[in-house]
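FAQ

Q: What does a record look like?
A: Structure on top, sequence underneath. For example:
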């Protein structure tokens, strides 16, 4: 089985009160690096290892993952997905998916990170079809 990881920008947020109080430029606004709806696809194949190239060439339609701070915040989940791991067992409603955000406390970007399973044989395809990756409330991790 091969794995890819899809990262989608869900939202960019801004907290003007925090920016006014703490930033050198209190009019910074939302993150200029990302827009809601952007999609990045990560792969690890012999010909393309975008994880170790820090997201170069991963933007759907062309382009690179544009921010080192955001990469630092989500890269552990991307790596787990590319290895076929459970990104968020007992937390999100699908253990192959995670919602995370960057480290900017005054203008965070919220990402949806998804493991994409790519079966290479009919046996893998059959096995994948039989799996239930759902996490339910009665099993949820609550801290």
């Amino acid at each position: 089985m091969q794995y890819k990881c899809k990262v989608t920008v869900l939202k960019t947020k801004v907290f003007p009160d925090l920016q006014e109080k703490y930033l050198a430029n209190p009019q910074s606004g939302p993150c200029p690096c990302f827009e809601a709806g952007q999609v990045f696809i990560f792969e690890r194949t012999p010909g393309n290892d975008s994880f170790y190239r820090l997201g170069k060439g991963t933007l759907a339609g062309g382009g690179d993952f544009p921010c080192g701070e955001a990469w630092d915040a989500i890269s552990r989940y991307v790596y787990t997905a590319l290895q076929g791991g459970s990104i968020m067992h007992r937390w999100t409603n699908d253990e192959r998916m995670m919602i995370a955000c960057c480290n900017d406390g005054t203008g965070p970007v919220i990402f949806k990170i998804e493991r994409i399973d790519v079966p290479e044989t009919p046996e893998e395809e059959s096995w994948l079809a039989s799996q239930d990756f759902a996490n339910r409330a009665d099993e949820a991790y609550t801290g």
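Q: Is there anything notable about this one?
A: Helices lie at 16-22, 68-82, 122-129.
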